[in-house]
Design a protein that fits this description.
Layout lengths: L4 E3 L6 E3 L3 E7 L2 E5 L7 E6 L4 H8 L1 H6 L5 H11 L1
Antiparallel strand pairs: 1-2, 3-4, 3-5
The structure holds zinc ion (ZN).
């Protein structure tokens, strides 16, 4: 049985979902999906490594979702990653 892989929006590496934090967009609202069960379009970022320091500067989630992210959400993502 193969484990489904997801791509980190920052480093573009394919990883298992357990190694990634999921951010979800639904009806224009973003949330950090700590349980991995939220409905909506998701984008993933590595939980460990440099990606948490790079996503803001590289606008990785903005590119993935094709819209701007609020500062609140960025803070929430960073909180989960540290
Ligand atoms: Zn990464």
């Amino acid at each position: 049985m193969s484990t489904p892989l997801r791509m980190c929006v920052v480093c573009r590496q394919m990883k298992e979902k357990s190694e990634l934090l999921r951010v979800v967009k639904k009806d224009g609202d973003f949330s950090v999906d700590t349980m991995g069960k939220a409905q909506g379009r998701g984008a993933y970022i590595c939980k460990v490594g440099d990606c948490c320091e790079k996503f803001e500067k590289q606008h990785s989630f903005e590119r993935a979702f094709k819209c701007a992210l609020g500062q609140d959400l960025k803070e929430a993502i960073k909180k989960e990653l540290i």
